[in-house]
Amino acid sequence: MQLPENTLESARQWDAQDPLNAFREQFLIPKVEQTPIVYFTGNSLGLQPRDAGAAVEREMEDWARYGVEGHFHARHPWFSYHERFAAGEASIVGARLEEVVLMNQLTSNLHFLLISFYRPKGKRVKILMEHGPFPSDRYALASQIALHGLDPTECLVEMQPREGEQLLRTDDILAKITELGDELALVLFGGVNYFTGQAFNMEAITAKAHEMGAMAGFDLAHAAGNIPMQLHDWNVDFACWCTYKYLNSGPGSVGGAFVHQRHLKSELPRLAGWWGHDKKTRFQMGPDFSPMQTAEGWQVSNAPVFNMVIHGIALAQFVQAGMERLRTKSLMLTGYAEAIIDQINDKHLAGLQVITPRDPAQRGCQLSIVAPVKGKTIYNRLTERAVSVDWREPSVIRLAPVPMYNSFEDVFRFGQVLKECLGVK
Predict the structure, then answer these.
(1) Which domains does the chain have, with CATH numbers?
(2) Calpha distance 9→267 (Å, rounded)
(3) Cβ 421 vs Cβ 64: under 8 Å
């Protein structure tokens, strides 16, 4: 893969040729003394789309104008508000329209889906998860195991990397699934690990789980809007994600959920609520729950409109940009950042270690760097110099050059500031 030379002129030339460069102007980038910061924390919270404020204001106007009648007479009627986003959401995760729904938030959706897809029986009680997931996943899985009267210390299996390694090998994951065999009820991994940035082979993991008679689900918090996926074709049973990271929909914004088509008309148990009831008879207010025959059947409450409106703006940008074009730019931005870090290490013996997979196919747009000496000091210096990265104990700096709004000049500036922070030229 050809990358820019490590010069400002080369970076600007690449930006000028970038077919996605215009999207940068559609976001509000924080500034320090009128200079946009280098914002590499879209893996924690995406930037605000420039049109978000006006979009929220339009819904406020409709609320003022119509009151309760806005459910049917607003410019985008609230009754069916979430349905507007199904096509865009499906294109991002590789699903069919009926397999996706926007509802609740990430960990809430994980719990809702686990009610349906973690069904321990007999000796088949164990859940396999990755080493070092985002803590909320571990909390959710342990609590679900306990709800079934089982012991999390016995039933929750955390897949460990080999001694001396930071990453999990796909072959080792598949071997562990085989080893657990008929004791395995569920495999639940992150699509991309939040700490290392490793993207897992979801297709292979799903196939092996099914071979062993288990379910396969994924937390896509760091995958949705980051890497292309084909959840339907990979036969993933279920998945959930947030929209406030790569999907740029605002802090605490609505979550997404996927349920494979083959489960939509099944008798899987679920937590029921009125918004999951068949919409043709929902307002008859009958006593018996009749779930919709789509992923919407897992809803319990009506759409949080003021929350969702921003996601609508962000989703339209993703549809226009296209995941394949975003992925192509992502590989170049991340490869450029990696090359700069390697140059600094080679020339100055800086001791920085990229623990994210070197194989671009096994990562998204995040790089996680171990800075064993004065790592927190380096992080603080980057922040003071208007480079927004993120620190994770004990010694990891995470940076995410997001293709929707980051530029090659951003990556060049990061490299220059990193050298300053290290005290090298």
Answers:
(1) 8-36+322-422 (3.90.1150.10), 56-320 (3.40.640.10)
(2) 61
(3) no
Condensed to tens digits (0 to 9), the pLDDT of residues 45-59 reads 999 999 999 999 999
Of 346, 356, 333, give the one whose Cα is nearest residue 414.
Answer: 333
Rg (alpha carbons) of the chain, rounded to whole number: 22
Neighbouring C-alpha atoms within 13 Å toward the C-beta of 281: 9
Per-residue pLDDT reduced to its tens digit, 383-425: 999 999 999 999 999 999 999 999 999 999 999 999 999 887 6
CA atoms of 110 and 103, how far apart (whole Å): 11
d(CA 314, CA 330): 18
The pair of structure tokens assigned to 383 is 């922040």
131 near 166, Cβ under 8 Å? no
How far lies 327's CA from each of 261, 308, 398, in Å? 27, 25, 19
Residue 405 tokens read as 């709004």
Token couple for 194: 């939040």
Side-chain half-sphere of 383: how many Cα atoms within 13 Å?
A: 12
